[in-house]
Specification:
By secondary structure, the chain is mostly beta strands. It has one domain. The chain is built from no helices and 6 strands. Strands 1, 2, 3, 4, 5 and 6 form a 6-stranded mixed sheet that branches. The termini are close together. The relative contact order is 0.26.
């Protein structure tokens, strides 16, 4: 997966399908390895825990995958 961040959103593009998913931060924020969306860089491989609300994907947690992780 590849990632990019813009403002209050995180876009993850699945390497297999090429389809992007856009995640937003909820009102309580997002835990990203103890940080926020600005802790994620383009090209990082991440795991996202999320829920859907009002038609949006709301990120709850984002954590970097270990090098060599297969997802």
């Amino acid at each position: 997966m590849t990632t990019s961040t813009t403002g209050g959103s995180l876009t993850i593009t699945d390497a297999g399908t090429g389809q992007p998913d856009v995640f937003v931060a909820g009102p309580g924020g997002v835990e990203i390895d103890g940080g926020a969306f600005n802790g994620v860089s383009v090209g990082d491989q991440v795991d996202v825990t999320y829920h859907q609300s009002a038609g949006q994907l709301v990120a709850d947690t984002v954590s970097e995958q270990s090098p060599g992780a297969d997802n």
